[in-house]
Amino acid sequence: MKFAIALFSAAHAPSSRRALLFAKAALAGGHEIVRLFFYQDGVYSASNAIVTPQDEQDIARQWRELVSAHQLDGVVCIAAALRRGVLNHEEATRYQRSAVNLEAPWALSGLGQLHDAAQAADRLICFGGP
Amino acid sequence: MAKSLLVISRQAPWSGPSAREALDIVLAGGAFDLPIGLLLLDDGVFQLAPHQDAKAVQQKDLSANLQALGLFGIDDVFACSHSLAARGLVHSTLAQPLDSAAITQLIDRYDQVITL
C-alpha cells in the first residue's frame, strides 16, 4: 500500500515518535511511503538544532536517518517552517538570519505537496496532538 | 478521479496559527481544483463569531479568508451545531450547521480527513 504521512507535532511530542514508528513499520511491512509532509509544529521534527539528553530518544535525528536511509521524500512546509524559525541555508540567506537548522534530506516546499501526496497515496495518515 | 479531503478545524482563530494553517490547506486544495470541504468543530466554530476585532489582539483578521472560500470554489463549509450552541454562537451564513449524525455522514463521504 502507498502511504502519505503528515505530521503536525514537534519532535518532543509523543505523536512524532508514533509517526516515526508507523513509518518504520510501514517500510518493514513492504509498503511504500510516497511522501512525509511536516506541517504546523511538525516542522520542529525536522530541525537539526535539537539537542536531547543522552539517555533520551533523539526523534529528530531518527527521522533524519530514516529519510536518508530509505531515500524518502521528506517535505517540510515552507510557510509553517519560516513562521517557526526552521530555516535552510537558502531561506536563512534570503531573510538574513544567522541560524540554519534544516538541511538535506529535508526539502522546504508548499502545501501543494501535501495535496499531491494525498492524491498519490492509497492512505493519508496524520499524526498530531499529544 | 481526484480524492476528496475534509479538513476539520478545531482551534479558535486567536489561539495560535492552527486555524489559519487549517484554512491554508483548504485554500491550497481549492487552488488545485480538488474536492475539498471544511468542518469547523469545537473551538473552531469561534472562527464564525461576528464582529471579531483582530486588531485588539494584534492579529490579522482571519474571517476575510473564510469569506474568500467561495471565490476559490470551496462551497462545502460546515459547522458543528452542537459546538455553536455550546459557545453561545448563532448559525452563520458562512457555514452550514450539522448535527452529530450529519457530521458522521459527512466524514464518511470524504476519502481523506485532516484534523487540526
What does this structure look like?
Chain B: Keywords: Transferase. Chain B: One of its GO terms (molecular function) is transferase activity. The complex is a heterodimer of chains A (130) and B (116). Chain A is an alpha/beta fold. Chain A is 36% helix and 20% strand. In chain A, helix 1 (14-28) links the parallel strand 1 (2-7) and strand 2 (32-38). Chain A is globular. The model of chain A has no long low-confidence stretch (mean pLDDT 97). Chain B has 116 residues and is α/β, with parallel strands linked by helices. Chain B has a five-stranded parallel beta sheet with strand order 4-3-2-1-5. In chain B, 30% of the residues lie in helices and 18% in strands. Chain B is built from four helices and five strands.
Which features does this protein show?
heterodimer; A: 130 residues; alpha/beta; 5 strands; 36% helix; B: 116 residues; Hypothetical Protein Ychn, Chain: A; Sulfurtransferase complex subunit TusC (chain B); transferase (chain B)
